[in-house]
Design brief:
6-stranded mixed beta sheet; 27% strand; 3-stranded antiparallel beta sheet; FAD/NAD(P)-binding domain; 12 strands; 212 residues; D-Amino Acid Oxidase, Chain A, domain 2
Length: 212
């Protein structure tokens, strides 16, 4: 490979849910991009791999997720139209816990702050509506009608196939080992050699702290 073919506008490290969508979005904008994953794509070790993942508008962790989630819903719908395939199934979702728990109170707070529709269900109502649940009396649920699930592996493979069609290079089993910035960009090293890039985007999930 010549040295010029190893120069990229962006190198994305980690090709899970975050990395695959990043590669597509950048390739769509005409960027020359390279995606690297240390394992197979997909692999069973990352946190977005597997057949399904839950999606909902309000997460208990912080209300600041909600604008991002509105955008995510729009992008999943856009992807469904592009590939003519259903990826996001809206089934309704419940976030359950004791009244003072962060799961219950954090979700309700986030819904209130951003006017997200929800219902509060007591344990009896939850168990009746969702026969798979068998909660104790003191468990409360925040039911979000917009919640559901994504076909996670299919989402990743769809984004990667579209990104490849747009010219993205994607290498499995090629870990980032080291990176350093210099005056013209960033140099990264893998077992296969050296790449230069204007931007380095770390989407390595729980491995990210080892790389930054
Ligand atoms: C078991 C589990 C279930 C979850 N369920 C949900 C859910 O239902 N709904 C929800 O919203 N969230 C859920 N989460 C959280 C959510 O899945 C994650 O936050 C999200 O998927 C992370 O995606 P990611 O692309 O950042 O990371 P990952 O999917 O983990 O991808 C990181 C990738 O980086 C690669 N990598 C690591 N180091 C290197 C390196 N040096 N060089 C190259 N590649 C590297 C890895 O191989 C991996 O493929 C769950 C998390 C877990 C762990």
């Amino acid at each position: 490979m010549s040295s010029t073919s190893r120069q990229y506008d962006a190198v994305v490290i980690g090709v899970g849910g975050m990395g695959s969508s990043t590669l597509f979005q950048l390739a769509k904008r005409g960027w020359k991009v390279l995606g690297l994953d240390k394992y197979d794509i997909p692999n069973a070790l990352g946190s977005s791999h597997g057949s399904t993942r839950i999606i909902r508008l309000a997460y208990h962790e912080h209300p600041s997720y909600i604008p991002l989630m509105h955008r995510a819903y729009d992008l999943w719908r856009e992807l469904e139209i592009t590939i003519n395939e259903k990826l996001l199934f809206t089934t309704g979702s419940i976030s359950c816990g004791y009244e003072g728990s962060s799961m219950f109170s954090g979700t309700r707070y986030a819904c209130d702050l951003h006017n997200i529709p929800y219902e509060i269900l007591n344990a009896r109502e939850t168990n009746k509506r969702f026969p798979g649940c068998s909660f104790d009396n003191n468990i409360l649920s925040v039911y979000q009608p917009n919640g559901g699930f994504l076909r996670a592996d299919r989402c990743i493979s769809a984004y990667l196939s579209l990104a490849s069609d747009l010219g993205a290079e994607i290498h499995a089993r090629e870990p980032l080992q080291t990176w350093k910035s210099h005056e013209n960009g960033i140099e990264i090293t893998t077992p296969n050699g050296i790449y230069n890039t204007s931007r380095l985007i770390i989407c390595a999930g729980s491995w990210a702290s080892k790389l930054v």
